[in-house]
């Protein structure tokens, strides 16, 4: 493992007496696609939110590109780390182009220069949003909205991107396209992407590394070959599954 | 696929702003001249004071409302609904109760003391509430209504115990009316509003980012807590100015802010804020003109304002419920 892009040391988040994240330590490499899997309430989103400084940690610390997220000024961190959570409501009517332009705020402070316009155009092209760029956000489908938000995070031009359930609201076709696109962002642009995923099969087919969580703790970390096994998945989700290898990818059958 | 809206078909934000400025100028001109049958040397300064106070109050109310709606992330809440002007009236009453109507001597000194107390209490009360990005509209609305009723009951309780002479002094400041503007406060109020507007200008890029919600704003590097504090201070100051000048008219903000969002073809605060101020100027000056000339001063402005503001709130709530 090269220099870690994200380093988490004994991170804890408590609500009253219950710890939703209970002493997590991780070292995630740069230029990798990392998936975080686990049952509902396993602490995946809380972990991501703490790394993203959206939620203060009860104990422990998180470093992104060597910067302590709790101590680094927000605007400095915003040029290294991009985040997208679920359900993003916008309180005003904005077009997709406006939204993507917001991604340039850490660099432009609201005054867009030539470099910003180039980055916006590039992000729109990368997500195939050019024909929709001047549509209002409340006039497009859920999948297109999701893509617009991803474009905003990509326009932010950060080394590291955290995504909380990027496949939410996407059908089969758009989910696969989204994963292929994120994979390209890692391979072609050298980004590090950490995504919370509910679909183990997508995690298995596209990730370099999978982090499996249960009850606020990390159960296992490793490449898909080590994680997508009946034994590990029984520990993570508490059900028995069948793992089938299709075209070299380990996939899970659990439907009945 | 629905037809893509042709953006060029609508006038740009600059044009809309120019039209609004024209309408405001027309309203001011009409107010200054219609039915003037006295000497101009008396009419102009007399009406000029009122127009100046209306423009000031309009700017303060509109700016405070748009700022508050941006940090609270929705367009139904206003400082008035959250109990801001009731809080200001409680502070006014409390100061008269504690120090007497003549306690501060100079009304300007009292105004500054009231504004200072207002800023302090507004921060204590509302910052925690909004800090975690709100907790849903209904909870905020409920908190606001409860706060408003609580502050009002407290000030009514204090007013009952106040010396009757001092109560008369206090009462003159508690009703919304442009007929009893206190000219001694006008210059100071103008200065305060100007300073607040300059401070708002510096916040404008951050305000735009805050429209994406707390999480996105933090992700884009905006110091959410600091910005929220600055905005609440400005809102408290602006509400104090308008309430001190003419009494509670901040409910008007709901109406004019939503009108401004409707007419402005952009989300950007650099355009929305002046538009809201101009819409308020048109509404206030025009409304006062109708009040004076048509109803011959038989209706109070506060009744008109609360009637229209209340109607707007109901319409907005009903539309939100259906959506």
From TrEMBL, chain B:
Membrane-topology annotation of the record: Multi-pass membrane protein
Q: Where in the cell is it found?
A: Cell membrane
InterPro entries per UniProt: ABC_BtuC-like (IPR037294), ABC_transptr_permease_BtuC (IPR000522)
Q: Which UniProt keywords apply?
A: Cell membrane, Membrane, Transmembrane, Transmembrane helix, Transport
> Pfam families from the xrefs?
FecCD
Which GO terms fall under molecular function for this chain's record?
Answer: transmembrane transporter activity
The membrane-spanning stretches of this chain are 15-36, 48-67, 87-104, 111-130, 136-154, 185-204, 231-259, 271-291, 297-318
- A GO CC annotation given for this chain: plasma membrane
Keyword Glycoprotein carried by entry:
no
Query: What GO terms describe the biological role, i.e. biological process, of this protein?
Result: siderophore-iron import into cell
Family under the similarity heading: Belongs to the binding-protein-dependent transport system permease family. FecCD subfamily.
Q: What is this protein called?
A: Enterobactin ABC transporter permease
Origin organism is: Methylobacterium oryzihabitans
Organism classification: Bacteria, Pseudomonadati, Pseudomonadota, Alphaproteobacteria, Hyphomicrobiales
């Amino acid at each position: 493992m090269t220099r870690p892009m994200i380093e988490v040391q004994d991170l804890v988040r408590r609500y009253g007496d219950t710890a939703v994240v209970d002493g997590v330590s991780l070292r995630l490499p740069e230029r990798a696609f990392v998936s975080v899997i686990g049952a509902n309430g396993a602490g995946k989103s809380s972990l991501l939110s703490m790394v993203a400084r959206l939620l203060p940690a009860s104990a422990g610390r998180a470093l992104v590109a060597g910067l302590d997220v709790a101590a680094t000024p927000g605007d400095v961190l915003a040029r290294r780390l991009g985040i997208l959570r679920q359900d993003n409501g916008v309180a005003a009517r904005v077009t997709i182009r406006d939204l993507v332009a917001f991604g340039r705020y850490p660099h432009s402070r609201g005054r867009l220069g030539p470099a910003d316009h180039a980055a916006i155009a590039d992000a729109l092209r990368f997500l195939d949003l050019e024909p929709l760029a001047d549509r209002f956000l409340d006039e497009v489908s859920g999948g297109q909205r999701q893509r617009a938000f991803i474009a905003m995070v990509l326009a932010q031009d950060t080394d590291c991107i955290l995504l909380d359930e990027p496949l939410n609201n996407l059908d089969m076709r758009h989910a696969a396209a989204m994963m292929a696109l994120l994979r390209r962002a890692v391979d072609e642009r050298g980004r590090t992407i950490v995504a919370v995923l509910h679909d183990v099969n997508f995690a298995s087919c596209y990730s370099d590394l999978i982090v499996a969580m249960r009850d606020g703790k990390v159960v296992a970390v490793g490449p898909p070959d080590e994680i997508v096994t009946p034994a590990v998945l029984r520990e993570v989700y508490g059900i028995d599954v069948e793992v089938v290898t299709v075209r070299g990818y380990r996939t899970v059958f659990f439907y009945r | 696929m629905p037809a893509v809206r042709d953006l060029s078909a609508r006038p740009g934000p600059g044009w809309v702003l120019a039209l609004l400025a024209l309408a405001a100028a027309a309203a001011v001109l009409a107010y200054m001249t219609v039915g003037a049958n006295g000497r101009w040397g008396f009419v102009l300064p007399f009406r000029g004071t009122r127009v100046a106070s209306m423009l000031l109050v309009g700017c303060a109310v509109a700016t405070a409302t748009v700022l508050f709606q941006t940090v609270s992330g929705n367009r139904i809440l206003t400082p008035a609904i959250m109990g801001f002007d009731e809080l200001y009236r409680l502070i006014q009453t409390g100061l008269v109760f504690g120090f007497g109507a003549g306690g501060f001597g100079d009304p300007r000194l009292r105004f500054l003391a009231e504004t200072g107390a207002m800023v302090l209490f507004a921060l204590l009360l509302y910052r925690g509430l909004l800090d975690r990005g709100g907790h849903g509209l209904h909870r905020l609305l409920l908190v606001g209504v409860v706060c408003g009723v609580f502050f009002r009951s407290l000030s009514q309780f204090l007013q009952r115990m106040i010396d009757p002479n001092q109560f008369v002094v206090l009462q003159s400041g508690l009703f919304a009316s442009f007929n009893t503007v206190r000219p001694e406060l006008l210059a100071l109020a103008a200065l305060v509003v100007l300073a607040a507007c300059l401070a708002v200008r510096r916040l404008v890029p951050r305000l735009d980012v805050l429209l994406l919600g707390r999480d996105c704003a933090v992700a884009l590097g905006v110091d959410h807590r600091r910005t929220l504090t600055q905005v609440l201070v400005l809102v408290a100051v602006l509400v104090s100015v308008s309430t001190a000048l003419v009494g509670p008219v901040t409910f008007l903000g709901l109406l004019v802010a939503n009108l401004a969002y409707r007419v402005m073809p952009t989300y950007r605060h650099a355009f929305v804020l002046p538009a809201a101020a101009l819409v308020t100027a048109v509404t206030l000056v025009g409304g006062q003109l109708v009040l004076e000339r048509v109803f011959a001063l038989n209706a109070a402005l506060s009744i008109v304002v609360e009637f229209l503001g209340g109607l707007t709130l109901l319409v907005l709530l009903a539309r939100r419920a259906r959506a």
